[in-house]
Amino acid sequence: MPRAKKSTDRKIFVLDTSVILFEHNAIMNFEEHDVGLPITVLEELDQFKKGNDTKNFEAREFTRLLDKLAKDKSLQDWIPLNGKTRGSFKVVMEAGSGENQVDANRVFGEKKNDHRILNAALRLKDENPDRKVILVSKDINLRMKAKSMGLPAEDYETGKIKNVDSLRKGKIEIEKVDSDLINHLYEDGTLSPKEVLKRKKAQPNQYFILKSDKNSVLAYYNSMDETIEKVDKRPISGIKPRNAEQTFAIHAVMNPEVKLVTIQGVAGTGKTLLTLAGALEQRREFKQIYLARPIVPLSNKDIGYLPGDIKSKLNPYMEPLWDNLKFIQNQYRETDKEFKAITEMVNKEKLLITPLAYIRGRSLSNIFFIVDEAQNLTPHEIKTIITRAGENTKIVFTGDIHQIDTPYLDSQSNGLSYLIDRVKDHPLYAHITLEKGERSELANLANEML
User: Fold this and answer.
1) Residues near 55 by Cβ (< 8 Å), separated by ≥ 6?
2) What range does the record give for the signal peptide (predicted)?
3) Which domains, ranges and CATH numbers included, belong to the chain?
4) What are phi and psi for residue 248, nearest 5 degrees?
5) CA separation for the pair 217, 204 (Å, rounded)
6) For the chain, which end, N or C, has fewer CB atoms within 10 Å of the first or last residue's CB respectively?
7) CA 200, CA 202: separation in Å to the nearest integer?
8) CB under 8 Å to 67, separation ≥6 — which residues?
9) Is the pLDDT of residue 64 over 90?
């Protein structure tokens, strides 16, 4: 967006609490436009300052940022944001003294913080009749309320993927390949990309299903060696791949040159199971295996509502991960060394199943780190996790970008979609989308028809 030449061209964006909790430095991302912060937002952020969750971190960081920007200035005055191309910000009181200002509390018949935020935005609109005032919120209901009162409202777009359908699938089917080339790949294990792709350029670690009239082969592009290499079906920890995509997922998880993997797919496609099986297969290569997932409480209630101690509270959220581990372990007899090895890993905490909040802040060196349900993370959370990676650490994110359990994320703004879009061309990264459910015919029916 070009820099505005007139003050009337500059808009005023009013931020909701959900935007700050999504990204603490959001006020720096509105270019030359000004930013209004309702006083209610500061009150709500005060309730989030304690705790170890990401939203608590975001609240604390925003408070520090605000304090740094304000210094000895009054927050009720427009304060310049850092940088010559940015606008200013101020804290806005709930309502003005004008007789004509609409009261959201009266309109909606209830006193709520959301309505106080609306009133603050309406006040700015009355005080600045020559400028466009826009409410920015991750809360779709609040945006609808704003629009119903004639106040423009938008989602916070930074980091949002415009077209989810265009996200990399990780594999391409190429038909009418010369059968002699496929035979050559079977015999030698490698091909020149030009022989298969002609003038097209392959992405690093791109997977292929090459088909001729007579035969077919699974392959991937090794960007390090600049070759197309054959991918073999292989069982890991007693788990056999049931389709081509699962074979590719296993290859990505087992490839020592790939340090970051994303596996996307609907329920029952085997994302977590295959990743955990791959981690167990490589257990001697890493000091520990961490299997973590974000806690998204049911009905958006805190886990404190659940009975028992902290372990009892967390067990319901971790149970799906234990189910996958038990499934792998049950591929063996109790007398088998593989069965005993898994039990010993759990007892000695070489394999640790834990909430994601318990991992934050740790240095992840020599770790195989699996993050399940990654679609419930924000882009900032994804970045925070990856920046913790030390030497000899591999991170695998699994999830379904269409199955969001948090109220302020969607298929376009969640961290998993963001990651798939941003790192698609890096040689350390591999991605595969699992499309075929393998849990059961009944589960497939639900995914396809309900």
Assistant:
1) 21, 48
2) none
3) 7-154 (3.40.50.1010), 246-449 (3.40.50.300)
4) -65, -40
5) 19
6) C
7) 7
8) none
9) yes
250 residue type, one letter: I
Q: What does the block give as tokens for 306?
A: 């659940």
Angle subtended at Cα 204 by Cα 198 and Cα 210, rounded to the nearest 5 degrees = 50
- Range 304-324 burial, b when 16+ CB lie within 10 A, else e: eebeeeeeebbeebbeebeeb
- What pTM does this model have? 0.83
**Eight-class DSSP state of 237:** T
d(CA 234, CA 251): 9
Is the alpha carbon torsion for 257, 261, 266, 270 positive or negative? positive
Q: How many CA atoms lie less than 13 Å away from 218 in the CB half-sphere?
A: 16
Distances (CA, A) of 45 to 37, 59, 71, 379: 12, 6, 19, 20
Tally Cβ neighbours within 10 Å of residue 86. Answer: 18
